[in-house]
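re: that complex we talked abt at group meeting.

here r the seqs, copy pasted straight from the sheet so there may be weird spacing, ignore it
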Amino acid sequence: MNWTAKTRPGAAATAAGAAPAKPGPSVSSSTSANVRISNGLKEFLSLLSDTPQARVLDLGPVWQSTVSFFIEKAYRISTEDLLRAWKDFLTGEEESLRKAPVGAEAIKVSPSMLADKFLETALQYPEKSFHGALAWDLLDYFDPEVVPRLMERLSRLLHPGGALLALFHSRPVERFHRYRVVDSQTIEWLPSPTIAVHAHVFQNREILSLFGEFRSSKTFVGRDQVREALFLK
Amino acid sequence: MWRKSTEAQPSSPVSGTTTSIKPQDVPQASPSRTPSQSVPVSSPSASETAAAAVGRGTSRVASGLKIQGEFSGTSDLYIDGEVQGRIRLQNARVTVGPNGRVQADIEAREIFVEGSVQGSLKAGERAHFGASSRVVGSVLTPRIAIDDGARLRGKVETSPASPARESMAAKSETESETLQPVAASVKGE
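got the structure back, here u go
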């Protein structure tokens, strides 16, 4: 089922005091921030609404607006900037390789081995800890060999019936962005210093395969060709 | 006077002890200036919020000090050094300055962080994470402020405001859902 994501008229203007936004994802000149309607978020929240004090995992950086939004709903929110943690992890691995004594036997490290090592310290929560997870577009930035390992872990962290919202770009991304929640149907993405390069454009078939452990899905395609995918465990 | 109180300071690190610090026991990190002295003008920094929170009667763990143990009492506390252990200042404010590195559970009326904290944070009134803050652990507070650039890895949960401070302390003893902080260092930008 596809819906076309619409830009909320005037959303960016309200935030920045600029002129009303034109159709399509709007750009606020003063804050360089993009604000758009997110049917995926709206649906995600609708799924959580039946759960009092739902626990939500935000896999992006911590933002005041996102945290405030969820705690005002009396939800409990956990944040773990997974992409940042991955970058820090890789930096550490490179550093240890660099410090290895000359002549030491070279160890071949595959992406999946790195993923397993990374997951020894990342996403360390008890199983079924969360009713919802916001993955934003971070799966696009991981090596395709690593993503199934992440999905497996994320699936274990979700309650049965839990929801996961992820965004997928339909073409390589030129600029790195971070996301935050503005209100119950609006998200904002902000240009940020690049911490990872866009690694892969997932085809719809690949996405469905990735979320094989989930029982149902909805996809919302925006005019900007960003696909919002909502999966239920 | 400054030299004397500095000499009275125990050598660091202080290990395995319960440490209660009174304001008069701890020297200020930098000598105060008389009105006639010129004050160097510095550009606004991330530490301004934290610095503004430090008033008279605030105990300090200055940069360069490393302390292990438990803090308790009623005085506000400013940490710009390294602290490991536990901090229980339920009626006071705890500020972790930009150079502060804390591996401890903190329980205080207000918690301001500009440096690095690993542990469980419980604020009776509010918590504020500055742009340079790096926090790994759970946060329980009725109000929270997070500056852009802050890094938090853990759970944020709201609690009732101050009147329930005692019950909050009791809850902390029994709460089973608190996520264990991950034993990983948080690196800077």
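couple things i noticed - Chain A has a mean pLDDT of 83. The domain at 38-96+108-232 of chain A is CATH 3.40.50.150 (Rossmann fold).
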